[in-house]
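Lab notebook, bench 4. Still working through the backlog of constructs that have no structural model yet. Next entry is a single chain of 337 residues. Request: give me the structure tokens for it.
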Amino acid sequence: MPSYVTRSGYKLMLNGYEWKFTGLNLAAHGSLWSGDVPAADWWAGGQLGFHWNAGTLIADAFDAQWTGIPVIRLHMAQMYSANTNSTPPARTWARLDKTMSVCQAKGKRVIFSFEGPGSQRPANWFTTGYTTRETSNANSYRDYVIECVNRYKTTYSDTILCWEMMGEAEGPHLEVKGWAKDVSDLIRSLDPDHLIYLSTIGTHQPGFDHAEYGAVYANAPNIDMCSYHDYGWGGRPGADLDDRLVQRIADARALNRPLIVSEVGFHADLATGDYMSPDAGSLARRRDTYKRKMDRQFQAGIAGFVPWTYQEVSEVNGMGLGPGDPTLQLLRDFSTP
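Model written out:
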């Protein structure tokens, strides 16, 4: 029996049993193993300048904060493995290797995301751009996918939960539809074992509006999981079980695939407050709202719930979850074997 996660229809399976999970997003972590990246760069320096101190703080976080939380969603975009001191940039795996080795040592399962938001890509990226090397990268997106899958699929077989093709994919429908099939077929040809996931917001973005959502997934049978991102509106949490999520769960069931909420977040305090000085009452109220959302959404049929995002301190007027945030204990309590 495989020790990695599989699926049976719309259920995730582990060790012969249905498996549901909670997790945490860890944004822009991949560059933070060394001090050679400016903290002012959001993507390269980490959200809010959260540096990992050459590996020390990330290990501390696993031990002190993330114990019992089984899944970490890692944004492993190509920029984190490109040495821009050479022309063209050379591939350097040290930071990604270190991240994966720590996750393996701590018994975490990783959602391995190859690429950032589709909204940041021009329309032609989904036809020719993803097969072409950009000047800031060592290789094309498509070739980078091949490199990563071949590098990590065996050594970290029990650590990889799924390969995520893109975070928040969106673009012209037919172009996205063709890209999704090509890349998912490519990954499956390289790795017949691990799950494949396409992250989408699920609230009528370009390429995924209404019936287009199901059409993209239906055209790519090697994509194992459907997606939804729950951000409410204006920093507010929105409904515990939004009508749009209900529709996406129905779409996933029609496709006979699991659905995971791979991003969910809202501000702890929607009034006034010091941005970096959390009020315990506000954080407790956010935990209670997360609890209602998790109860309703798991009951409705989701397979995973992954808040955005872990960082060095919890935010009141923001979504960040820091050390000691009561939501972390909630995620531990919901974790399943």
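Notes after review: Residues 280-300 form the longest helix (21 residues). The first strand starts at residue 6 and ends at 8. Flag for follow-up if needed.
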